[in-house]
Task: inverse folding
């Protein structure tokens, strides 16, 4: 059974801090790993990672994948109160009729105080 | 362009009632997914459509759950004889490649 574990489960920081969110996975037919940000509505797409060691960046957010050690990290620098959200990690299964099925972790709740 | 839309946004049902949740995917997206998200948890896969074909329904928790996408666009998730454990947010996502785009979800509360 595919499994995704995120840590920490929750994190409280102050504006300007840098945070690192972790995601480890076990999946039978790995295709890619995705990060989403979820506020009180739809999860919004952040990154998709397919290859090891290639960092993806978008503003203050960056992410990298290690397919040998089966984990990914999401970094947020100079955090702002608007970064407060649940960050979800998911892996995409490539096998057979399950192609496209996402298995999610339980999420990391990030709270950024002013 | 318009994203994925879902309706209703909130639904309160008495135990035993049937409910129907609607998803309008992004136009042209071939793939459509339903997920269930319990409070404090990540979304869990329910079912997957490619056009009108339901290719994977392994995540549907019981035979009270039924999903359809008859014309390969709009999809409906139906839950018969709702139970309290069905209370959750039901998310729909669509895609044409590997990235899935989510709707705002329907929050279902069964009393």
Result:
């Amino acid at each position: 059974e595919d499994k995704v574990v995120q840590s920490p489960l929750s994190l409280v920081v102050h504006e300007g801090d840098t945070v690192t969110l972790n995601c480890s996975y076990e999946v039978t037919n790995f295709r890619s790993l995705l990060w989403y940000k979820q506020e009180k509505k739809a999860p919004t797409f952040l990154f998709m990672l397919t290859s090891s060691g290639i960092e993806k960046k978008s503003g203050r957010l960056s992410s990298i994948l290690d397919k040998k050690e089966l984990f990914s990290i999401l970094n947020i620098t100079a955090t702002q109160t608007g970064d407060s959200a649940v960050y979800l990690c998911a892996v995409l299964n490539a096998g057979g009729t399950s192609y496209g099925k996402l298995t999610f972790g339980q999420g990391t709740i990030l709270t950024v105080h002013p | 362009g318009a994203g994925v839309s879902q309706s209703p946004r909130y639904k309160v049902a008495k135990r035993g009632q049937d409910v129907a949740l609607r998803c309008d995917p992004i136009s042209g997206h071939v793939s459509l997914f339903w997920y269930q998200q319990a409070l404090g948890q990540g979304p869990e896969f329910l079912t997957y459509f490619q056009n009108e074909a339901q290719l994977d329904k392994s995540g549907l928790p019981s035979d009270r759950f039924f999903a359809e996408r008859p014309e390969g666009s709009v999809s409906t998730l139906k839950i018969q004889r709702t139970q309290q454990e069905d209370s959750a947010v039901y998310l729909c996502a669509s895609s044409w490649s590997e990235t899935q785009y989510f709707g705002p979800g329907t929050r279902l509360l069964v009393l």
Remarks:
- DSSP finds no helices and eleven strands in chain B.
- The longest strand of chain B covers residues 88-95.
- The radius of gyration of chain B is 13 Å.
